[in-house]
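Researcher: I've got a protein sequence and the SMILES for pyridoxal-5'-phosphate. Could you write out the 3D structure of the bound complex as structure tokens? I'd like something to compare against our soaking experiments later this week.
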Amino acid sequence: MVTRAELPPPVGSRLRHWLPFTQMSGFDVRTRTFVRGRGTMLTDAAGAHVFDAISSVWTTIHGHGHPHIVEAIARQAAVLDHATALGATNPLADELAERLCALTSLDVAFFASDGASAIEAALKMAIQYWQACGEPQRVKFVHLRDSYHGDTAGAMAVSDIAAFRARFAPIFVESVCYDDAPDALARDDVAAIVFEPRLQAAAGMRIVAAERYAGMRAPHRPLLIADEIATGFGRTGTMFAYEALALAPDLVCLGKGISGGTLALSAVLATQRIYDAFLSAPEANRQFFHGHSYAGNPIACAAALASLDLFAAEHTLAHVAELDAAMDGLLAPLTAHPRVADVRRAGLMAGIEITAPARRVADDLYARGQFTRPIGQTVQLVPPLSSTREEIAAFVAAFVDVLDRAG
Ligand SMILES: Cc1ncc(COP(=O)(O)O)c(C=O)c1O
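Model: Sure. Here is the predicted complex with pyridoxal-5'-phosphate in place.
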């Protein structure tokens, strides 16, 4: 255990790096300056080794620095670092599209960069799809209560986040909350409903009851957009969370774990019906009007392909199933703790809602070698899929100790 007193003083009093969702006035560079990652562990500049209990915000899948992914990245960087996807392609992106479609019920893959850029692409795809179908009035969206889909304008508009709405409403498109108005799906001006399948991670690992999705199915016309950016790639137990819901989405957004958690890459998978609506003679200008500089980047795609290899080679989903079966038992000391109000979990995505001050608890956990980040009063445990029972048990033991000492 490393205490703050043992850490060296900050390097310089002023950091020029402005961090996302971080109050910089209180940021202490003595902790959380990460210099190395191996397996489930991160090492900070002061030499402390911490368990990455949030998979670096739900990105890391097989652990940090996995040699198979590292080699794939290095090999590809030496062959072709980047070439635009605007009117061109590369074999890595083509193969990844092929393999992602084979894993899902979808037919084509459109690549973007971060999760939010996949959401933006999906929203625009829905609008342009309806224009192609002769229903240009379908420009509005429907979202679920407590939803979160990212920080860009369209993604914020379909997120039920009060802090976004209060600050940025002037740049929102119109989106209706499904829970307030389930009839909205029958309206003829709605392009799509966007939802997180099974679990709303940013809302504090809220489990969404399967019944809430039941009413979204046909015969409604709006497209179904499944946001698998947090839940995709095995985190909830199945490769994709929507598989458990008997829903057939028209568009599926992927991000975060798609590259194994190594490089910025995201994708929108679409059905043939959507794709076909964009086909025309070149003069008709029906091509999709969206694209990012690094879409289909071959190095990121090589990482993603290597990550998919590892799912097979390391039997990742079978390992997750074993951990999943053990999780209730492993979490039991927290579930029973008097300072724990609720434990919510789907697969390896868990939220532990506590009554003690959550930020201080997270700081104390860091000092005990456990890196997590609270969402309000909910402390997250979303470990890399390669984690062991012992690592999760150690996280729980440290957490119980911190809670026992919390005033
Ligand atoms: C469900 C969901 N959608 C979209 C996003 C946005 O992804 P990114 O941060 O990569 O833009 C997130 C990020 O946490 C997410 O949890």
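Model: Residues 40 and 63 are 5 Å apart (CA to CA). The pocket of pyridoxal-5'-phosphate is lined by residues 114-116, 119, 148-150, 196, 201-202, 227, 229-230, 255-256 (CB under 6 Å).
Researcher: Great, I'll pass this along to the crystallography team.
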